[in-house]
Design a protein that fits this description.
Strand content: 15-25%
Number of helices: 12
Radius of gyration: 20 Å
Largest sheet: 8 strands, parallel
Structural class: alpha/beta
Distance between the termini: 10 Å
């Protein structure tokens, strides 16, 4: 039996200015509460991931990192955009998430004053890969949790298919300290098994723990229009051109969802920084959705929206994993000359059955981890 007095503290990438980041945190929080536990999201935001500092972080990895002048030009252009976007997502988090009373900026701060809880949970998304300038961040491995407290991971991800050899021993030590381990991708389970840990299971991304009816409760107004939706995270001129041509051939308008102001000038009618209701409504009501986003793909499947998936380079394993699970790998675009998806519609019957079955299984695994 769940004990409502027991509190779970989740650490995850909740504060990235990205719809998927916020919604996966909300979904896991909701699932844990539905199982009868108190729950909060640890408000951990690294200095280099704080939206006020993102331009400083990114310029170091860019071609603009040549000298003081070029860095200044980059930051003067980019900083206002990231601050505007960061403030919007900060508002969305306050509306949806039960965050800890204190904000933490480092593992050191977490160790000095860990949030009080009965158990600690590493949440989903790319928590175990490189973050900022670090190959790993011990905070996301619960290295701050007080001794003797239960440590679990739900649908954690490395965001890649290999581990740097020099980090293998450190990661193994971190993972050995968990009481229960679950991951989001098959590739993540394989990585963990390859370093000698076998008690790991694959579960659904948190956003799939809630069904389309539960997500629809966050929609204030349904979009009443016919359109092709473009939700694009990675810069890709070919994807832009393809979406424009696809919409023309389908006889529909193209709508681009974007939290980035500079992308409003690209193909399609831009919907800039929609709120959570708008984000979900545009996906739910699209005639077709073209996306390179893992969570875009997950929501399209959940809402039974016709979609085309463009795999995003080195992070494509995330998309591939959910497509393989649901038997929808044929929705991957392999040629920018292929418009056959216009007339090749998805029958979601089998995918819905698989997700429903895996949802029950994943919730039961989460329940057993919390109660075990």
């Amino acid at each position: 039996m769940a004990d409502k007095s027991k509190k779970v503290a989740i650490i995850t990438r909740h504060a990235v200015s990205n719809y998927g980041s916020v919604l996966q945190a909300y979904a896991l929080q909701s699932a844990i509460k539905s199982l009868g536990f108190d729950c909060e999201i640890i408000d951990y935001i690294r200095e280099d991931e704080d939206y006020k500092n993102i331009a400083d972080t990114l310029v170091k990895r860019s071609a603009w990192n040549k000298n003081v002048l070029t860095r200044l030009i980059y930051k003067s252009i980019q900083a206002p955009e990231y601050i505007r976007m960061g403030r919007a997502f900060e508002k969305y988090r306050k509306e949806l998430l039960c965050e800890s009373g204190r904000r933490y900026a480092s593992l050191k701060e977490l160790k000095q004053d860990p949030p009080a809880a009965d158990m600690y949970c590493t949440g989903s998304d790319q928590v175990w890969g490189a973050i900022g300038n670090d190959e790993t961040d011990g905070a996301y491995f619960l290295d701050f949790a007080p001794k003797g407290k239960k440590k679990i991971a739900y649908a954690a991800s490395f965001g890649k298919t290999d581990i740097n050899d020099k980090n293998t021993n450190k990661i193994k030590k971190y993972l050995d300290a968990y009481d229960f381990l679950t991951v989001r991708e098959k590739s993540a389970a394989q990585l963990i098994q390859n370093i000698g840990i076998n008690n790991v299971r694959q579960v659904l991304d948190p956003t799939l723990l809630l069904d389309k009816n539960q997500w629809s409760k966050l929609i204030k107004e349904e979009i009443r229009d016919r359109y092709v939706l473009l939700y694009q995270l990675h810069s890709n001129p070919q994807m832009d051109s393809y979406a424009k041509s696809f919409a023309q051939k389908a006889g529909l308008k193209l709508i681009r969802l974007t939290p980035l102001f500079h992308r409003i000038f690209k193909s399609g009618k831009a919907v800039y920084l929609p709120d959570i209701s708008g984000f979900l409504s545009y996906i739910k009501n699209a005639e077709y959705m073209i996306t390179d986003s893992f969570h875009g793909t997950a929501f399209a499947i959940n809402f039974n929206t016709q979609f085309i998936d463009i795999l995003p380079g080195e992070t494509k394993t995330r998309n591939q994993s959910i497509l393989e699970l649901t038997g929808l790998t044929n929705r991957v675009l392999n040629s920018y000359e292929d418009y056959s998806f216009i007339n090749s519609k998805i029958d979601f019957t089998k995918a819905n059955e698989i997700i429903a079955e895996k949802r029950v299984e994943s919730i039961n695994i989460l329940k057993n981890m919390l109660e075990g």
